[in-house]
Structures are given as structure tokens and as C-alpha cells.
């Protein structure tokens, strides 16, 4: 739908990858890239996006261009956009609730946003055409738009994304320290540990900026977390099995009732994609490997393959456990795997 996508990055190797993968049409410095831009998408860690807003404010932007971002927190970037950008330039904050613990252009996937919630945080007095332009762009990815104010967005994601990230990383950190005394901690770290801590592999710089731009929302949650952990500790100390079981039951019931995104016409649930070399026998090798481990593969397809380039296989499983087992198996076999949540 866009006539041309121009990529800007501090890292020339990232731009080369983006060109090779045909994600951008050409690379250019910022001042050249924004000439005639209809939409400018800031897809950098949050503080970098704020710095880029300052850079943009110094440039002669096309009068009708709309600026958006994809950062994990919204209050700071929206406040700065309002202060920094010229009044005639619209800024529509955005946050795709999709992605993974992987970063970099190689973790990109053309169907990543399909069925995902994509939050937009326009000001209430924003120009309708500006919101519509970003809405059209986002809808083309298959995402479902949710309009929120930046404060509410930041409060919600603090609980469903930022606190879990901190807890996962803290858990890994604790076990890593134990692992210095006894290497068997790492040997025994199996499925459950890996499931709970997957996100802890995320980009540290990105998460640093998320914590620093959403501290107001995250810190009260950390206080509450400490209170709840102490309570659990007291139940164990008092041998209060009923309280412990009630706690686990409530958690399991709520977790089980979460809506499964991705079901339906566009994409069945429980999928992952695997980056594979474009060479004969690859599909057979992967199917055989999964079969040997009795993993219930429902379907296998080629998502994207260009001659002489890497391709992507899309694997569909009957259930979540099979998908998670497959991800672990393929990753331990050296494949790069992306979960399609
Ligand atoms: N990783 C994920 O799953 C998700 C990330 N986000 C948000 O997306 C944003 C980017 O995250 P990722 O794509 O994961 O990071 P990334 O590290 O994969 O990509 C960031 C890119 O920006 C470039 N960059 C950094 N500073 C720059 C600057 N000043 N000028 C030009 N280029 C610059 C880097 O070289 C890199 O290529 C973050 O704000 C994050 O909160 C949002 C949803 C999901
Ligand atoms: O890894 C996952 O499952 C994620 O939830 C990815 C993610 C990371 C950061 C975001 O701001 C939004 C989504």
C-alpha cells in the first residue's frame, strides 16, 4: 500500500539486512528520508524515539505527514511529541502488543501483527485524517486496533508486560547466582523454567527504557508483588495448605480463561515460524525431527521463500504443549524459531 518505504538506522548492517529482506525499498539519512513522507514510524527504544522527535522538529517535514511510534510506553513519548513537534504535525502514539524476546531486523515476520491488539493513543482533539491514516496502515497488518489514552495504556501494560518481565528476569538472575555455586541448576532448568522466563531474553536496553519511562506505574505493582510474596511465605510457614491451594486455583482459573488470540479464519492457534535455509530436504528434516520426538504437528507450510535466500516455515500444532515442545527442540537443534502468540 505504501509507494516507498525508506529505512533510517544508526547501524548500516541493520539497513543492509532490511534491504536484503526487502523490508525497505531504500536506506537514507533521516533528513533525506522524511522528504515527502506521508507517515514516519519511530521504531526505536523509547528514549531514542524522544531524541528522534527532537531531530524531526529541526527538519522541514511535509505539512501533512503523520508521525507515529511503536514504543512499549506511551505517556513520555506522547508528552514530548506535543511539546517538541510543530503544531501542524500530528503524532499518534502506537504500541503493537505482539513481538517476542528477540530483537533486530532478523526477528521480523510479515505476519507478526495478525490478530494482535495494536494500541493507538491519539490526543482527543487529534485530526481525524491523521488517526485514519495510521488506522489504515495498522489494519493492513491484520492487527486489531484499540484506542486508549496514554495513561491508561501505561497502567495496563505495567501489569501485563512490565511486571512479568521484571519478575522473569529477577527469577533468572536468582537462579543464575545459585548456578555459580552448582552447575546443576542450569542442567535441571527445564520446560517450566523456560516457559516462565522466556521474556527475560529480551533486549536489555529496550527494557531499561521501558522501566525508566513507566516507573510511576511499575513501582506500586512491585510493592504489591512484595506484599503478596510475603503473604505466600507466611502461608508456607503456617502450613496453610488451603490458602496455598486457593491461591493456585484462582491463578489457574484466570490463566485458563484468557482469550486465545489468533483463532479463527486468518490463522489457527499454536503456531511458530522457523527460519530455514532455502535448500532441498529442509521440510522433511524438520518434520522427521518432530515426529521422532512424538510432537503432534498438524500442518507445515512455507511462509516466505525467495530463491537464494532464507525461507520461513510456518508450523501449526494441535495444542500449546506440542508447540512449546517443538520450539524448545528446534532451538536446541540450532534453528531460529519465532512463537506466534
Ligand atoms: N521487541 C518487541 O517484541 C516489541 C518492541 N516494541 C517496541 O519497539 C521499539 C523497538 O524495539 P525492537 O524493534 O525490539 O528493537 P530493535 O533493537 O530490534 O530495533 C531498534 C532499531 O533502532 C535502531 N536505532 C536505535 N537508536 C536509533 C536512532 N537514534 N536512530 C536510528 N536508529 C536507531 C537500532 O540500530 C535498531 O536497528 C521499542 O520502543 C519497543 O518498546 C513494541 C512491541 C514489541
Ligand atoms: O515476548 C512476548 O511474548 C511479548 O510480549 C513481546 C513484547 C515485548 C514488548 C512489548 O512492548 C510488547 C510485546
TrEMBL record:
Leader peptide range in chain numbering: none
Keyword annotations of the record: Amino-acid biosynthesis, Aromatic amino acid biosynthesis, NAD, Oxidoreductase, Tyrosine biosynthesis
EC number annotated for this UniProt entry: 1.3.1.12
Top-level taxon of origin: Bacteria
Domain (Prephenate/arogenate dehydrogenase) ranges: 1-266
Catalytic activity: prephenate + NAD(+) = 3-(4-hydroxyphenyl)pyruvate + CO2 + NADH
Biological process according to GO: tyrosine biosynthetic process
Pathway: Amino-acid biosynthesis; L-tyrosine biosynthesis; (4-hydroxyphenyl)pyruvate from prephenate (NAD(+) route): step 1/1
A GO molecular function held by the record: NAD+ binding
Domain spans labelled ACT: 271-341
Similarity remark: Belongs to the prephenate/arogenate dehydrogenase family.
Name this protein carries in UniProt: Prephenate dehydrogenase
Gene: tyrA
Amino acid at each position: 500500500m505504501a509507494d516507498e518505504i525508506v529505512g533510517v538506522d544508526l547501524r548500516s548492517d541493520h539497513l543492509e539486512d532490511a534491504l536484503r529482506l526487502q523490508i525497505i525499498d531504500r536506506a537514507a539519512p533521516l533528513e533525506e528520508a522524511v522528504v515527502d513522507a506521508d507517515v514516519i514510524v519511530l521504531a526505536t527504544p523509547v528514549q531514542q524515539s524522544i531524541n528522534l522527535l527532537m531531530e524531526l522538529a529541526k527538519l522541514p517535514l511535509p505539512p501533512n505527514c503523520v508521525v507515529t511510534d511503536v514504543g512499549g510506553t506511551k505517556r513520555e513519548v506522547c508528552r514530548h511529541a506535543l511539546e517538541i513537534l510543530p503544531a501542524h504535525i500530528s503524532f499518534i502514539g502506537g504500541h503493537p502488543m505482539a513481538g517476542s524476546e528477540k530483537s533486530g531486523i532478523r526477528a521480523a515476520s510479515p505476519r507478526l501483527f495478525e490478530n494482535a491488539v495494536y494500541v493507538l493513543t491519539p490526543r482527543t482533539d487529534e485530526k481525524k485524517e491523521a488517526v485514519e491514516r495510521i488506522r489504515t496502515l495498522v489494519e493492513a497488518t491484520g492487527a486489531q486496533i484499540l484506542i486508549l489514552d496514554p495513561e491508561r495504556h501505561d497502567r495496563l501494560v505495567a501489569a501485563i508486560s512490565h511486571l512479568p518481565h521484571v519478575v522473569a528476569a529477577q527469577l533468572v538472575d536468582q537462579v543464575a547466582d545459585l548456578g555459580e555455586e552448582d552447575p546443576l541448576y542450569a542442567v535441571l532448568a527445564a520446560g517450566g523454567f523456560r516457559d516462565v522466563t522466556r521474556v527475560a531474553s529480551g533486549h536489555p536496553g529496550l527494557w531499561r527504557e521501558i522501566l525508566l519511562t513507566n516507573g510511576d506505574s511499575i513501582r506500586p505493582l512491585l510493592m504489591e508483588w512484595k506484599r503478596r510474596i510475603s503473604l505466600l511465605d507466611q502461608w508456607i510457614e503456617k502450613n496453610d495448605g488451603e490458602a496455598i491451594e486457593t491461591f493456585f486455583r484462582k491463578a489457574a482459573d484466570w490463566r485458563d480463561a484468557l482469550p486465545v488470540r489468533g483463532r479463527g479464519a486468518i490463522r489457527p492457534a499454536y503456531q511458530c515460524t522457523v527460519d530455514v535455509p532455502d535448500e532441498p530436504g529442509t521440510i522433511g528434516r524438520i518434520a522427521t525431527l518432530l515426529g521422532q520426538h512424538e510432537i503432534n504437528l498438524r500442518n507445515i507450510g512455507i511462509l516466505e521463500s525467495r530463491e537464494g535466500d532464507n525461507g520461513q516455515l510456518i508450523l501449526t500444532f494441535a495444542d500449546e504443549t506440542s508447540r512449546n515442545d517443538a520450539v524448545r527442540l528446534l532451538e536446541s537443534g540450532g534453528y531460529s524459531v519465532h512463537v506466534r502468540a
